[in-house]
Queue: 2 jobs
Job 1
Amino acid sequence: MSIDINTGERTATVAARALTKRFGARIALDRITFELYPGEVVAIIGPNGAGKTTLLSILAGALEPTEGEVVRAGDKRFGWVPQEPALYSKLSVAQNLRLFARLERHADPEQAVARMLAQTGLQDRADEEVSRLSGGNQQRVNIALGLLSEPPALLLDEPSASLDPRQRERLWEFISGLAGHGTTVVFSTHNVAEAEHYATRVLVLGDGELLFTGTPVELERAVSEPVEVADRDALVGDLETAFVRFLRERGH
Amino acid sequence: MRWLFVKDLQILKRSPLLVGLLVVYPILIALMIGFALSSPPGKPKVALLNEVPTGHGQLNFGNQKINVSKYASQLYQSIDPIKVNSRAEAIAKVQSGQAAAALIVPASIVSQINSLITQGVGNPTVDLILNTKDPLERQFADQAISSRVAQVEQAVSKQVLQVAVTDLQQTLNGGTLKFLGQAVPLLGLKNSRAIVQGTIASLPKSSPLLPALRQVVNFATLAIDGLGFATPVLSSIGSPLTVHTVNLAGKTTPTDSYAAAIAVIVSLMFVGVLLAAALLALERSEHTYSRLVRGLVTPSGLLSEKIALSACAAAAVTLVMSALVSLFVHLEWGRFPLWVLTLALAGLAFAALGVAIGGVAREVSVAALLAFLISLPVAFVALVPGDAVSGTLKTILDAVAFVFPFKAALQAVSNAFSGAAPGIGWPLVHLAVLTLVFGALARLALRRFA
């Protein structure tokens, strides 16, 4: 679907309109509406079972919403980096990249493979079987697959969960670079500090509802207790505490 | 779909153990079946104690002698005899497992048979001692010996009846009786009656001898009629029934090629079902399914690729296997295009069953185990002869055999191998329908994948 999602000020990369997803009687997402813009780094945070993975899967097109719609600018597919590396462990790094480049009908699959190997720094591991790579390197291949088609938006489900601090640092450098070139980056995380450091905007989900959308600082300021302004100011810079209080205030 | 095909082949190439098993397993099965079919049936080892003294194995019946010992050689055709010298040794052989059974022929057997034949008294008995530790071995030895003893029994009784019939015919028609080395002429009833009738004709009608002689003629006539009737009756007792077999369903499947078809279908089933189930479950355990169905491949396209690849692999492997089996068993190479067609269609049906199984499993190991657990009883149920069970159980087994591809595949392939009935058309249609049904079930199961 390609419709005008220009808000007047700028054109959204993607707009979610009243997204609802039900699994049987359970409501995983309840009328979620938001827009994402080029160059934004958006963190989706929320407790377990809040609907983060479901929301990302619907944005990625891996899952159909029960109601509502996802409107994308242009017809390019979004990059999708699921939580678990979605790779063929028996194939080499290059074979994985080549397969998906071909399936995405890249004009020059070999050029796309070379580009992603260079971008992820895996040239010297190109012929290595994925199962022999470390978790961090597997995640790099996982991200490379999401970026093969040079997508306008990259969706990452808990991308740093299996990485050590050094690998995590490299990942965020890489993601920041993508955003700097205009790619919309959306990631889910349990690590609120990560959201605070790297996200320009956070979406807070609780029991399938969108409870908050704004910058990390706005989330810190949205906490009403303690009521004194001075105390509220003391929460600034401690997004995790603010986030927990925010959820508690709303019964989550 | 081409690139998915290439990808799965690359994965298989990097799994040499799996590919090796897929190739070697059916070939081993083929060789085993081939050797089994081309080798003569085995004989159970039986400890044999013959207590009849040498030279005393002879029945005296009337003026005839029947050598019973010559029938013992028939018994040896079914067993591998271990000659022993005492009952205790025979039992020890069975207890130690060196023999599956012991057959003891008592010294009195000949006199017992003589007594039964000449006086109608007694019950000649041989002892059969079986090892009860192994029920299958026990049954094998019991059946081999019992059936052969029955044949010997029939042969002896036929010989005895033949002697009786010869004597009856001599009584009726006359002949020569050997007695103490001398040939003694035997008049016979018919000749006796003729002589008496001649005497009656030569006597005056008022002769007082006539009534008595006429009574003799009447008796002789009745006896001739009665014995004339008895002769064919006695002859028929030796083999009262002859089975004349008529096959209504056209050409029958030779047992060898039917066994070959079973071996081929079992292999086709395992390769097709296991490969398809594992390849589909792999997409889930590698988390690649969600990536693929995001517009790169449709779920139906993915299923089609798995079915096609698994069916091709299963058909190719079992074609090689069929060629190997044909070294041992006569398979009609003139029907080779039908081999290809039936193995391909059966492969598709089994692969569709495989993806239906793979669709409900989360992991490759679970899919493989599930495929194995479902395949075995499916094969077993399809191989149960229709008349071996009855009533509700038969209906249930028929229904189970109908909804899985094994039986239809077996009918189609055995027809392709030998041109045997039933025809090939319906089994192929059945397989095509099952492919669609299992494909649809797999498509439903994929909804749980995302």
Job 2
Amino acid sequence: MNDTTAVTKNEPDAVARKERAQRSEVALIPPVDVIEDSTGITLRADLPGVPKDRLMLQVEADTLTIEGEVSIAMPEGMEASYVEVTVPRFRRVFTLSKEFDTAKVSAEIKHGVLTLRIPKAEHAQPRRIEVKVA
Amino acid sequence: MYRSVFTRDVFAELDRLQREMQEAFDLSPSIRGVGRGGFPALNVGGTSQSVEVYAFAPGVDPATMEVNLDRGVLSIAGERQANLPPNDDDKSAVHINERFGGRFRRVVSLSDDVDPNSVSADYRDGVVHISVKRRESSQPRRISVK
């Protein structure tokens, strides 16, 4: 990562900016688990190498965006010889439905696993409907 | 074989498909089978002084992780709990299940010049970083001409 910043610094600003914009388009799609129970949804996403301060969570209207940048300390002058994680960025977008209370989303990241809890709005909580006999 | 770490990425999937086709026709595949697409994903790099291995293993208890270096072969093994509700649980539904769960082991053979006595490993943000120093005798040296 040190290498890339060094490279962009030497380039003219416009080119560097354009490249950065292009690169920001490319992101890995993290694998997730989504489990729904009666009170809400639990989402777990694998974001290895993403520290808390490089994680961006956003709820806008009905869209949930998870974005994270991989930040790993690498020794200077390291040359990669074999690479499976090719892009240091994760991004995934989900569409939420109306019954979720987006104001009460809670998030936690531990050992590179993000856990999101999205509760259902109170009016959407399950209720038992009584059947009256006429 | 485990499904791709980053599913749903169409280009990555096509890339993987092509690679697997190639590997299927390749008459001399790696003796340890198909390397890519396993858990954890690996990046390997090196400097003139050391070999650096990064294993992307989020959500693994570091106490259960086993990292071994034996005759130049580095292995990373452990277990990750799936954390999914049991099948007979009728109160919850699993809508997406892409994350790996279970035991894993990945093996990398390192170059001959590594020093098995100076290995360090740390686990941070779900990434295991293993650094193995190269032997003094194999490090580049500047030879002065008289």
